[in-house]
Predict the structure.
Amino acid sequence: MRTFNGLDELKTAVGEHLGTSEWHEITQKMVDQFADATGDHQWIHVDPERAKSGPFGTTIAHGYLTLSLAPMLSSEIWTIEGITMAVNYGSNKVRFTQPVPVGSRVRGSIVLDSVDESPKGAQVAMTLTVEIEGQERPACVAQTLSVIVP
């Protein structure tokens, strides 16, 4: 866990790899709950029997489920003290480069891209790479944006 004491200290780390999270298993229960929450019940996600004969040989996580792990993965990698709050502001380029089979494990890796002052504090851009254990290509690469209020 990398801890920063305020925005000035965070700024000194621009361009650095901040760290890597723990591994997390993607379960069918997680995928089913995400399907229920979003209304995306496509069989490649929620029908293990049918998915056995599908293109991936098993059910796979939704791409947006993979992306939605960003706050959890980030919280295992870095934190900032001495602030009022931090809120998600959005994402820039997001790519789902490989499916995440149910039962596989993923982890996040973060590079701090920029810290830009704003009237409300700072806009922070980070590149999150979600890796799949045992795979060369990542599942997802996204530049996430946050606003940090001192």
Summary: Helices lie at 6-11, 28-38, 43-46, 48-52, 63-68, 70-75. Residues 2-149 form a domain with the Thiol Ester Dehydrase; Chain A fold (CATH 3.10.129.10). The mean pLDDT is 97.
